[in-house]
From TrEMBL:
<keyword id="KW-0479">Metal-binding</keyword>
<dbReference type="Pfam" id="PF01328">
    <property type="entry name" value="Peroxidase_2"/>
</dbReference>
<comment type="similarity">
    <text>Belongs to the chloroperoxidase family.</text>
</comment>
<keyword id="KW-0575">Peroxidase</keyword>
<feature type="signal peptide">
    <location>
        <begin position="1"/>
        <end position="17"/>
    </location>
</feature>
<dbReference type="GO" id="GO:0046872">
    <property type="term" value="F:metal ion binding"/>
</dbReference>
<feature type="domain" description="Heme haloperoxidase family profile">
    <location>
        <begin position="90"/>
        <end position="330"/>
    </location>
</feature>
<keyword id="KW-0408">Iron</keyword>
<dbReference type="InterPro" id="IPR000028">
    <property type="entry name" value="Chloroperoxidase"/>
</dbReference>
<keyword id="KW-0732">Signal</keyword>
<protein>
    <recommendedName>
        <fullName>Heme haloperoxidase family profile domain-containing protein</fullName>
    </recommendedName>
</protein>
<keyword id="KW-0349">Heme</keyword>
<dbReference type="GO" id="GO:0004601">
    <property type="term" value="F:peroxidase activity"/>
</dbReference>
<dbReference type="InterPro" id="IPR036851">
    <property type="entry name" value="Chloroperoxidase-like_sf"/>
</dbReference>
<keyword id="KW-0560">Oxidoreductase</keyword>
């Protein structure tokens, strides 16, 4: 039995009609009424999604061009420090996306697709996502599984294990006409507040134009300007400052601004700029040039940017060692602790309401500064019913929950996090 499990408040006569939601941790009861009007606004836009009849799939890894050896969704060696693409590899090369290819809000996945590490049309499988993350960036197997599970589980199809790296491509990701999706449709990673959220580094908040996935050159100009205070580098201190600036901007301008438990993913992505994106990763230097290349930001010569397809810079090297769940959790804490902003959301412009608590990782609207709590929060946001606005909760259907625990329990075994048995 499938049923729509996003509990939204649009038609509710009162909050009391939804005692389940009202009692959930992280949901602010007083906000239920006020929130309704804004929620309506938030959900109204849908863009059309291109269909490419040619679905090449990820190109194969052929010896001796095996990267970390990650293949078929299995763990690789974790040994990095080589050029990507490996010189001479006939299968992984830059090809700009065409009008029928889907691209979205993630610079990492857009880049992977542009080089055929994942399917060039923008529709890919869980296994392809694991291989690509390990082989291009040396993402640790546990983190690769975590991100792919969040992507496929929340925005894709748990039977085909396919996902779109942008818009809703249910007709191609689904086995059963979309019924496997968490919302009865498979929105792809553009889908707002499933994985994609407000305060992105280079994308506009969904509320303004219903476009949360296109590169926004003026946001990127502001973000880049912040690095002037940090030797023009996207290093940890610069990213902490940038995150706080992006938060302030959204809080001041977006009446629908929401920064909930899943904002932990945004801090994680911010750490990718100095952990994964520099040549040699955490051993390298997060220069504007290298970060621009992965974001598709081309300086226009007068301080601004134009968008060009995302590229791996020439002679670029993958980081030496894997970047794991524990590593990303430590970076989230390092970033957040510099500017420990309250989690929650707006009900109207500049009317911020902090969320309550969510597990141990979020107490009184603040993220825990214990890296272990943050690591376990990554597990929780994939396996629990998480508030996805001040008044709505994304309830995971049992089959999606089973998918999540099936993927995550093996890589979180021994993590010290309480695991769900289903
Ligand atoms: C299966 C794996 C992955 C999925 C499903 C995924 C998905 C996403 C999504 C939905 C966003 C938008 C978040 C937001 O700003 O609202 C995002 C942002 C981002 N991702 Fe990924 N991602 C994955 C792996 C990676 C990897 C391996 C990299 C490596 C560089 C990466 C780099 C980034 C960066 C830098 C951002 C921030 C962009 C911005 O804020 O403008 N991602 N990702
Ligand atoms: C890009 O960002 C700027 C600054 O936040 C905003 O004013 C503008 O509307 C955005 N453009 C689009 C197309 O989203």
């Amino acid at each position: 039995m499938y049923h729509l499990t996003l509990l939204c408040m649009i038609a509710a006569p009162s909050a009391l009609a939804f005692p389940f939601v009202a009692n959930l941790p992280g949901v602010n009861n007083e906000m239920l009424e006020a929130r309704r009007a804004h929620y309506n606004e938030n959900q109204k836009r849908q863009t059309s999604c291109p269909i490419n009849p040619n679905h090449p799939g990820a190109h194969k890894y052929v010896a001796p061009y095996l990267y970390t050896g990650a293949n078929h969704g299995l763990p690789g060696s974790g040994i990095g420090c080589f050029d990507v693409p490996i010189p001479g590899d006939p299968n992984h090369y830059f090809e700009a996306p065409g009008p029928l290819d889907i691209r979205g809000p993630c610079p990492g996945l857009n880049t992977a697709a542009n080089y055929h590490f994942i399917s060039h049309d923008g529709i890919m499988t869980f296994a392809e996502l694991l291989d690509a993350q390990q082989n291009i960036f040396n993402v640790g197997y546990d983190l690769a599984v975590t991100l792919a599970a969040l992507g496929v589980g929340l925005t894709g199809d748990i039977v085909t294990e396919k996902m779109s790296i942008g818009c809703d491509a249910t007709s191609r990701t689904s086995a059963l006409g979309g019924l496997q999706g968490v919302l009865g449709k498979e929105g792809g990673i553009n889908d707002h507040n499933k994985f994609e959220q407000d305060t992105s580094l280079s994308r506009t908040d969904f509320f303004f134009h219903g476009d949360d996935h296109t590169f926004n050159a003026s946001i990127w100009k502001e973000v880049t300007a912040v690095t002037s205070g940090f030797n023009n580098l996207f290093n940890r201190d610069a990213m902490a400052k940038i995150m706080s600036e992006r938060y302030k901007d959204s809080a001041a301008t977006n009446p629908n601004f929401y920064f909930g438990p899943k904002s932990v993913i945004l801090y994680g992505a911010a750490s990718f700029l100095y952990e994964l994106i520099p040549s040699l990763g955490n051993q390298g230097i997060p220069t504007r040039e290298v970060v621009n290349s992965f974001f598709g930001a081309k300086p226009d010569g007068s301080g601004g940017f134009t968008f060009v397809p995302e590229r791996i810079p020439d002679s670029w090297d993958i980081r030496p060692t894997p970047f794991t769940n524990a590593d990303v959790a430590a970076e989230v804490v390092a970033l957040y602790s510099q500017f420990p902003v309250p989690l929650g959301g707006n009900v109207g412009i500049n009317n911020f309401n902090a969320m309550g608590s969510f597990g141990t990782a979020i107490q009184n609207g603040k993220l825990s500064l214990n890296p272990k709590d943050v690591k376990c929060l990554l597990y929780q946001i994939a396996t629990e019913n998480v508030p996805d606005s001040l008044s709505t909760v994304l309830e995971l259907p049992l089959n999606v929950l089973n998918f999540m625990t099936g993927k995550l329990n093996p890589v979180f075994a021994g993590s010290g996090c309480p695991l769900k048995l289903t």
